[in-house]
Amino acid sequence: ALGNLGPAAANYVPDIAQILKDEKVYYSVRASAAEALGNLGPAAANYVPDIAQILKDQKVDKYVRGRAAEALGNLGPAAANYVPDILQILKDQKVDYSVHASAAKALGNLGPAAANYVPDIAQILKDQKVDKSVRVSAAEALGKIRQLKLEEVVVILNYAYEPNQQFFGSYSENNNFEFWRFWTYFLGGSSEEVKTLLTWLGRPQAIPDKLTHDEGVKTLELFLKAWEPSRDLARLHEDLAKEIAVVARKVSWHPGDILILEKHYNNLKGLNEADSLQSVIINLKGWQWFFNARTTILIHAAFWLLLIFAYPKFPQVQAIFFWNPWVRRILGVGYVGFLLTWFPPFRRKLFEPFKPSLLADAGLDNFHDQSYFPESQVKVPASGDILPITPALPSIQGQIILEGDSGLGKSMFLRHLLKNSQRIVVYLPAQKCHKGVIEAIQDKLHGQAQDAGFLKNLIYSGAIDICIDGLNEVTADTRAKICQFVESYFRGNIIMTTQPLEWTPPSTAKTYYLQPLEQQQIQEFLISRQPRLPQDAKIQGADYEKACTNYLTEVLKQQQAQEELDAVRRILSNPMDLTVVALMLSQGKQPNLFRLQEQQYNLMAAEYQQEWNQEFPLKRFSAAVYQMRLEDKQALPADEFHQVVKSLEDEKYKMVVSRQWQDEKSEAKKEWYFRHDKIMDFFLVQNFLGETDAAEGLLVDRMGDPRFRGVYFLLATLLEIDAAKELREKLIQYAADTRDNTVSNTFVQLLRTR
Fold first, then answer.
1. Which of 3, 445, 514, 534 could share a disulfide with 39, CB 3.0–4.6 Å?
2. Residue 670: inside a domain
3. Do 540 and 574 fall within a single domain?
4. pTM, to two decimals
């Protein structure tokens, strides 16, 4: 009881020790006192010499000495110096076997302190004259002291493992509980090799009926290690030979295993078990010719794999091996071309050098996922359900038309798909498809990569996805070419975007209708812009949030005409326009939704004059932008308008964005682009305003040019009302003559809201 009370009994350790030493006390009480001291740990450490003296005293009862030995084993480091004394008791043949067993158990509990005496303990196992319970305890001790080497276990097994005797043998409920304990202790403290060896030699009922190839190889390698140490141990050697033959029959071997099987066959020569290995080896050699052919195939495949991984960095490899159809067919033996077409990782490698070119027009360098609305909703075809756009269109699958009014985020959604796609995707502005879609893709590639036949196969098989943006911005002839392409490649994955227009879409495509944002979504986006607003903004924090709420309540009031309300919602669904609204509200100004670009320009122009002490060169810069549009250039003439570009790029306005890269000579290059077509349209429209003959001429001359459609939409809000009505009549007349009412319809709707 005292021994079980732990620290609470610590003050009574001297009394317990006195009981242990008192020769007049009954032996079982003294034994219990020894046991109690062993349980009390550090509190009994000072009495280790007394306990050791009891153990060595031959006059003391064997039962007391046994408990004293076990107590020393339980006292850990405090008893480490007495390991030689405990070992001496274990080896002393005059001592009773029960004391021997307790001494062996104590050595096991002392662990590393007894590590140097493993050979002495192992010797006890070898001694057939030693009582079996002592040998069991010695085996347990070996399992606890340290992890035994395979060579040591082999020697011990030869003496401890006796499968044909009642003592150490195969475990069953009726016999040999001791061997089970022996095996368990080795499991706890030995390597995986030792555990595997014990399984095969000690517990045959645990061996599986069939081994996997890897298990078979691993087991034979283990038996090779055990063979040499067991060579002089006749009984174990014989059992090991039998198990080698068993493994040989349980595994489906490969020709590459012949070497290890032949090593075992040479070891078993002269024994009956050698026949099993010989039959396996003969059978494997019959299959070796097949695997030699397989080796040739593997070398060929490895050669092409090496080329595939070298391919992106070396144009010579690209031109010679991959984009030359004859080389692919002849050196690729047929399967290389097939894998390049149908295996996605290889397809991605194939187009890796061209990925920047395929996506160049998307401007992904300046795209942030926060810029588009993942909760924007679309009307799904067939069912008519209204769903969030991201789950409705998670990827480019099949043929899709995304239709929505200007500014609802169609292009932003395409960029989101491109940014997150793991497949090969090409982004094409519809204007670049005037010669055809295949031709537009070829313009983004070079050399043998322009192989039209290979591209057509990839598109038809759905291996390359295509985004075509802005069908409403091209002529009817270009739209017809795109529609013909889409219907021809009806198995391809193609997504197209357009504003509402009168046309006949491809019969193979499904149309999703993009919906304007709800008021709550608009408000959340405006509030999310706050961290990006100028630090010197007049209205910030809670005041800014309140200003957003008040503004939206006013402009989205239900009392206005439904058409005007719809127009307002369309504008407020445009991320770029919303960003301008946020900037205006933070400056304490009232945004005019129909003249946002003009308001943004006025803010920027005022700051330009303050910074550069001169007026913003609007006419000269607008004329340069007009020339850019005529020449289909995207980059701004930054050398001529350095100060202008710097002001437009200011963090407050972000009307232009920059792109940097290295040219062929590794020299750094930088270009500037308008952040959105609406901003470019604002500067273009300056060429159309005024009462000059040039402006009047432009109004008529550019009606049929899809590059200037956004300009006419701006004119619906910027022209004087009478001039706008006059232009409306001209546009309606043009639509009647050409049957192209794409511009006139939208112009009429915008003007009606005024």
1. 3
2. no
3. yes
4. 0.51
